Amino acid sequence: MKNTPYILLCLIILSAFSCTKKEVPHYTISKVTKSDTASKVLVHISSRLTKDQLLSIAGKIKSDSSALPNLQLCYLLPGHSDKNTGANNYYAVAKYPNAQMANMQDTLKDADGNIVRLKITGVSAQTAKKLLALHPKELKDQNFFGHFIDDNNQTVIIPFRDFTDPKKELYILELDTTGKVVSATIPTVVKKDGEERWMVTDRGDYIILKDSVLSQYSIEDLGLPYNSIKSGL
Question: This protein's superkingdom (predicted)?
Fold first, then answer.
């Protein structure tokens, strides 16, 4: 077996090539906030990524940000505002716990072997495709403004104007993944501060549609959107 060392060398080289890290999806960072408990990084992604893709981004940021303790990554989809820090604004959150705080349930690791706690709250690309395809037959002739997925409620919001109605009223439908209507609203349209607001509750909650982004505002959130959604994602 004179060729054994040569064969082993070839196997080591092939193994090295097979262990190279996967390509990291494109992302951008808009804000880094440090506190006593965490270093929070807002990470913008261009589409609905898988667990492995989110982990690859986390590993890259972790390796480039070793000086940041208790790293916490908040992933935002296009259209989501980084001005709102509410939990329902993020597609996913990845946290790197201190080694002292790791437990037996912490089995998820990035490419460098660091423990990561990843929670994906947004719907998957497959579920999103299903929601975006929902189109009630009764509304085939209406003027739709777009399909907007509410990741927090796992529904699709469909605003439209009924041109068959003499009043041409505005309607907002919300459907779940089975196509069931979970809410139907005829908002009151109000012009304020140079923008058109669709008032959806009696207490003053409203929606604004601008540049294919539907932003939902709560009267309790001091003028910040509690959920911003880009159409068709």
Answer: Bacteria
Q: What is the pTM of this model?
A: 0.83
**10-residue stretch averages of pLDDT, the chain, 233 residues long:** 43 35 85 85 95 94 83 93 77 83 69 88 95 82 86 93 81 94 93 92 94 92 87 94
Looking up tokens 């140079």 gives 194
Count helices and strands (H / E) in the chain: 3, 15
- Cα dist from 127 to 14, 41, 143, 151, whole Å: 38, 27, 24, 10
SS3 29: strand
CA dist 179 to 125, 156, 158, 196, Å? 17, 9, 12, 29
Long-range contacts of 102-110 (CB under 8 A, 24+ apart): 108/55, 110/55, 110/56, 110/58, 110/59, 110/62
3-state secondary structure (DSSP) of residue 130: helix
